[in-house]
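Predict structure. Chain length: 325.
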Amino acid sequence: MLPLKGIHHVSAITAKAPQNYEFYTKTLGLRLIKKTVNQDDVSVYHLFYGDEKGNPGTELTFFEIANAGRVHEGVNSISATSLRVKSDAALSYWKERFEKHSVEHGEIAEAFGRLTLSFRDFEGQRLILVSDENNAGVAAGTPWEKSPIPAEYAITGLGPVKLTVAVPERTIEILTDILGFRAKGSYPSDVPGQPDIQVFETGEGGTGAEVHIEERLDLQQERLGRGGVHHVAFRVENEEEMHKWIQKLKAERIPSSGFVDRFYFRSLYFREPNGILFELATDGPGFDTDEELEHLGEALALPPFLEPRRAEIEAKLKPLDTSLS
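Prediction complete.
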């Protein structure tokens, strides 16, 4: 069995798709690579952002749940999503841009030997820019040429994902014994009196293949809502490998969804012992299987098994203009 290749995507919750589209494309300069629906609830938009073609490891996605309450931050959660940039200099560019656009942000700081810049979107989504200045490992994506952000400063993909848990040993056991992650080191928490944050990596390693585990004993259970993260997905080479992972989880008596065909990729879902939802997702087929590359995200895309219901689905969705004209 091949090792997992890194982070595939992170899926979060928004209550306002139009503002979400505006922030992630106009302010952050990501490309909307797919405007579709949640396949488990077709009344809900599912928006995918990424690099020029939505390469695996660059995808940040959002379910629009219009009546979602605000997330109540706490343990047993995906508490921060990192976004990669090419250099330390890019962080200075972003700090200035955030100030210009009134985006809530912290200061440029070092974490695990890299410079970072924390910030939040308009719903409080916890995000971190991380510099790849000295990074080695999983390759970054390619910024979209029509992005409003200069290429040298553009976001190039997903960086480390932080999990905040009350009992780290249980999550670490799944990461290392089942999923094959390796311990890489640790760094001090920015919360006084809390244990060091532990770092684990998979595949080629580097910022695109890390999970950071934060232990917190001072927080309650997180209540998911707008501004929170629904799940994190890890990269599987292909469908053949996915079936091997399905058999492995069965052998370990870990309950899972089994094989799920998402059309743009194949998936498997399960919860680790602290209740965080993990997904394994194949690198392909990709987001240009049903749309031309130059027109990704401009119209509502439906996988073939939902296409017969298009009129019904569109009637229940509020129009969302994502055309580039």
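Summary: The CA atoms of residues 49 and 213 lie 25 Å apart.
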